[in-house]
């Protein structure tokens, strides 16, 4: 049982940890692109090419499913990934959890990168799923990069700035970048200071992990004996889990896994 994940950086840890919690016996393959970070300024064609390269490294030994644990990569590359890999390898993308957030009817804010906030893709999601619900996009300048570096001071500055842009009536915050889930409690604290009340935070990691298991024909078994191995690729090269991952509980959970034998060479 193997689940692979691709992302530009360590944002994939949130989904990887969610898979680990649902199936402690599953092996994980994580493939990120430290050489190409950040992806925000890149063109969609470049992001697609880099995502395909990461995915090809991760599926040399075919996994039961591949998670695109990145909103930007999902928008840019999901059709191409599915055309190349499916049906042999089911591919699951990551989109902002606007639909479930809007179901309550309470005012919501979508925290995302500036590019995502300005994208027609996100605006379309808001039109389709949040019609009639007070909803705004909040650009989080520099937050993903700060999380990637585990730079506490920069994370604090970025979160505080984004919280200041969040309307006081907000009651739900959608975490529209996988990196943000790694600092969710810090986001909650700052938004609560702005709104004066507890807000709900909704990410995508748990839903994406559950969907990957469904697409793979697997059922959750959180009580299974921990097993499986971890295999890591950095810009398609066999690698170790980056040290920065250990700054987050999700990374520390993944670090408890045994390392896969190898490394394998990527064609």
TrEMBL record:
One of its GO terms (biological process) is peptidoglycan biosynthetic process. Keywords: Isomerase. One of its GO terms (molecular function) is glutamate racemase activity. It comes from Streptomyces hainanensis. This is Glutamate racemase. Gene3D superfamilies: 3.40.50.1860.
